[in-house]
From TrEMBL:
Superkingdom of origin organism: Eukaryota
Region annotation Disordered: where it falls in the sequence: 36-55
Family annotation (PROSITE patterns): CHIT_BIND_II (PS50940)
Keywords: Chitin-binding, Disulfide bond, Glycoprotein, Repeat, Signal
Protein name listed in UniProt: Protein obstructor-E
PANTHER family, A to Z: CHITIN BINDING PERITROPHIN-A, CHITIN-BINDING TYPE-2 DOMAIN-CONTAINING PROTEIN-RELATED
GO MF terms, alphabetically ordered: chitin binding
Record-annotated Chitin-binding type-2 domain positions: 57-116, 126-184, 189-256
Cellular component annotations (GO), alphabetically ordered: extracellular region
Low complexity: bias regions: 36-51
Record bears the keyword Disulfide bond: yes
Endpoints of the signal sequence: 1-17
């Protein structure tokens, strides 16, 4: 039981690291619309959606404010110093009535639920993009990691970190088993072996791990029948006995160059540690000598 919990915590850390590294490049081709790779940012926005009674266009209740045009998800009225002007979000973006006035109010569809504001301007597709703005999945259910960011109708293609799939619903790279239109087995090229199900106890609890056949640093985690792929850090490899990543020189399945490299690194670390201990011992002695 303890072990399962620890393993789970480790996985979360791994996933968070991946999402963070991804966020740094996702922000480059941004359209001035709000970028939201940050987990935890979007769902609250949708829940907080306040439904205000529609009001006639052209009325300002405050000097500076914005409100939706009745029935439309991308048209809004902007009051600047008491003067109302009707505006339209760029094709593919939607008006979010719940953002601060200082924030650009046109955002990606995953951040704005239109509810009964269902009308949208006609799409303005280009040969690269179905709308002028937005993120769109490329590939198919076996090839889930590619996506396209459309900016003014020009597409910029990206790929999720290895093992993750693009989710059109959350606008993020997710585990493939959490993405509806991704076939995780086909995408990762791994089928989780079936395990015997006990009549009395049901399916076995916890996660199962399998080292990849062709790469000793790569391993699969099976949650039920769905695989996720994970990677050990540099110079470490997956050890089937302990279900952890250990120094690669200890894993017979690794190629000899990697094992030799890992052994070298380990030896260097040992020597460094020995030197540090020696140094610490010396300085402590010196200090003792000085204070006495
Ligand atoms: C806003 O409107 C007031 C009153 O009409 C005017 O005096 C002021 O200069 C305006 N401010 C700006 C920034 O346009
Ligand atoms: C809106 O922006 C103002 C000025 O920048 C800030 O003081 C206020 O806290 C913001 N409100 C929200 C809800 O973020
Ligand atoms: C997967 O999709 C990408 C983007 O459309 C494409 O470039 C790539 O060739 C596809 N790979 C396979 C194996 O189909």
């Amino acid at each position: 039981m303890d072990k399962t919990l620890i393993v789970f915590a480790c996985l979360c850390g791994f996933a968070a690291a991946q999402f963070n590294s991804f966020g740094s490049f996702g922000a480059t081709a941004n359209a001035g619309a709000y970028n939201n790779y940050n987990r935890g940012q979007q769902p609250q926005q949708q829940n907080r959606q306040v439904q205000e009674a529609p009001r006639p266009t052209g009325v300002c209740r405050e000097l500076n404010e914005r409100y939706p045009v009745s029935g439309s998800c991308d048209k809004y009225v902007e009051c600047l110093n008491g003067t109302a002007e009707e505006k339209l979000c760029p094709d593919g973006l939607r008006f979010n009535p719940n953002v601060n006035f200082s924030v650009y109010p046109c955002q990606y569809p995953n951040e704005v639920s239109c509810l009964e504001r269902s009308a949208l301007q006609p799409a303005q597709p280009t040969d690269q993009c179905e709308h002028q703005f937005g993120y769109y999945k490329l590939g198919d259910s076996r090839n889930c990691s590619y996506f396209r960011n459309c900016v003014n109708g020009v597409g910029y293609d990206f790929q999720c970190p290895e093992g993750l799939a693009w989710s059109s619903a959350s606008y993020r790279c997710e585990w493939p088993d959490e993405v509806e239109d991704c076939d995780a087995e086909a995408f990762l090229g791994f089928r989780c072996p079936e395990v015997p199900i006990s009549k009395e106890l049901g399916a076995p609890a916890g996660f199962r791990y399998y080292r990849a056949d062709n790469n000793c640093q790569k391993y699969f985690l099976c949650i039920g029948s769905k695989p996720r792929v994970l990677f050990c850090g540099s110079n470490t490899a997956y050890d089937e006995l302990t279900n952890t990543c250990v120094s690669a020189d200890e894993v017979a399945a690794c190629p000899s160059e990697l094992r030799a490299q890992a052994a070298r690194v380990r030896e260097e670390e040992k020597q460094l540690l020995a030197k540090e201990l020696e140094f610490n011992a010396k300085t402590t002695n010196k200090r003792r000598y000085q204070y006495n």
